Inverse folding.
């Protein structure tokens, strides 16, 4: 994987005001791989992810409602890399296919 | 580019059952009104087989939770985004799936990566997958004994999962009546 210059510092800066455990932040789980975790996990409260690739970002799933998608979108924007792909990974369920697929706005 | 399974794509092309959402997830009642107004975006690229999406990202179709789940494997980081194939610390919901098939899928899932990001709950690993698999097997058997799931959220899903497994044994792939009641349709 090619290094994407600067994204780590931008990510660190975006987290400078957050204390762990880092719910609703881009939590690093690998080199250029981030999990977006929501506390609890009941219906409508799901996780997502972001992967930094050569050409930009792959976003793994989206959030359901504005109070969820706005902070996720802001954290993604803070990486200052283009979103190239959104993978709607799991949301076939009729209770979640629509809402959870409200792609980052 | 928005990627999804054919089943997800079909659902996104249909109107959202907003009243069912509100009944099932009342905490988001007011926000659903805005969502209904904004709508959702359609899938632009269908994924119906394993695909190497980028140098880092592999997309893996799977079944069990539903007929159209997708997982994302980032092998170089040893991370699997398992989506709703994994609920950690939260009771899974199989009303549109197959608890037995789901448990079978989990048999191989934890071999894919050490770090597993579930669709719901905290990050976990192989032990969490084993607990989830054992819970689903108990649902297939018809009752859930005491176990690590005693601390999970949303245990009122047990009857839905047990009922779905029993219906499938009888050849009925319909919506469990207990789930219909949960979304205000029963």
């Amino acid at each position: 994987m090619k290094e994407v210059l600067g994204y780590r510092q931008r990510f660190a800066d975006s987290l400078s005001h957050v204390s762990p455990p880092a719910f609703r932040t881009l939590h690093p789980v690998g080199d250029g791989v981030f999990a977006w975790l929501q506390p609890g996990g009941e219906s409508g409260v799901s996780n997502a992810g972001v992967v930094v690739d050569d050409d930009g970002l792959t976003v793994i799933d989206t959030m359901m409602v504005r109070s969820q998608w706005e902070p996720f979108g802001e954290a993604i924007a803070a990486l200052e890399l283009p979103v190239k792909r959104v993978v709607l990974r799991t949301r076939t369920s009729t209770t979640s296919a629509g809402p959870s697929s409200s792609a980052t706005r | 580019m928005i990627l999804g399974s054919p089943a997800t794509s079909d659902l996104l092309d249909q109107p959202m059952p907003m009243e069912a959402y509100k009944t099932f997830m009342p905490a988001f009642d007011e926000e659903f009104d805005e969502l209904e107004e904004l709508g959702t975006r359609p899938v632009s690229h269908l994924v119906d087989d394993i695909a190497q999406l980028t140098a880092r990202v592999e997309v893996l179709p799977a079944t069990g939770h539903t007929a159209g789940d997708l997982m994302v494997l980032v092998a170089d980081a040893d991370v699997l985004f398992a989506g709703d194939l994994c609920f950690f610390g939260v009771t899974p919901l199989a009303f549109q799936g197959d608890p037995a098939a789901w448990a079978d899928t989990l048999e191989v899932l934890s071999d894919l990566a050490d770090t597993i990001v579930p669709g719901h709950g905290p990050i976990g690993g192989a032990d969490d997958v084993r607990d989830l698999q054992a819970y689903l097997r108990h649902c297939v058997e018809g009752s859930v004994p005491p176990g690590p799931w005693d601390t999970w959220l949303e245990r009122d899903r047990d009857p839905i999962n047990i009922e779905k497994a029993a219906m499938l044994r009888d050849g009925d792939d319909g919506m469990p009546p207990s789930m219909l009641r949960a979304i205000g349709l029963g």
Remarks:
- The longest strand of chain A covers residues 48-53.
- Helices of chain A lie at 7-14, 66-78, 97-100.
- Chain A touches chain B through 49 residues (CB under 8 Å).
- The mean pLDDT of chain A is 76.
